[in-house]
Specification:
Layout: H1 2-18, H2 24-39, H3 53-58, E1 65-70, E2 78-80, E3 85-89, E4 92-98, E5 112-114, E6 118-124, E7 131-133, E8 136-147, E9 152-163
Helix pairs in contact: 1-2
Length: 164
């Protein structure tokens, strides 16, 4: 990979030297653009998995939380709590830290969580009215996951349910 980059850069330098009236600033910008393309791998789309009761039990995720489920399903893909956020990827629970400067969710938790590889944002739809049931309140919302380069890797509308 580095050899190819060196060859490309070397060829760009030779072409720049051969052309009449070449602009060194433009040449540098061209080389920077080529290097940036090599530093930015393709976006890897992720598929968060359903957090099931055995996952909650095994990882002690009990307590008051807000959970996101895509569409109108009941399959929770993200749990937001005051001290942590949880997502399941490749069969494992991933723990994220809350951004306590972000907006608070209605019952508990925050709208943004950061992890080593991903950040998750839970946004409630403006004007979405709460639908209340016994021990649970839910709103229309959206879950967006971004990679460490701030590129969207997952984005779905759904329901945000909060309760115990």
């Amino acid at each position: 990979m580095r050899v190819k980059l060196a060859i490309v850069c070397g060829m760009a330098g030779l072409l720049a030297a051969c052309s009449e009236g070449s602009d060194p600033a433009q040449d540098a910008a061209d080389v920077a653009e080529i290097e940036a393309m090599h530093d930015m791998p393709a976006i890897k789309q992720i598929s968060p998995e359903h957090i099931r009761y055995p996952d909650i039990e095994k990882n002690n995720l009990f307590g008051v939380s807000c959970g996101f489920a895509p569409g109108n399903s009941m399959k929770i893909l993200f749990l937001a709590q005051d001290e942590h956020g949880y997502m399941k990827l490749d069969g494992k629970i991933v723990t994220l830290a809350p951004d306590k400067g972000s907006a608070e969710l209605p019952v508990t938790g925050f709208s943004k969580y950061d992890g080593k590889e991903f950040s998750v944002t839970i946004a409630l739809d403006e004007g979405s009215e709460a639908q209340e049931a016994i021990e649970l309140t839910k709103w229309r919302g959206r879950m967006t996951v971004r990679d460490h380069k701030d590129r969207v890797t997952f984005d779905k509308d759904g329901l945000v349910g909060c309760g115990a």
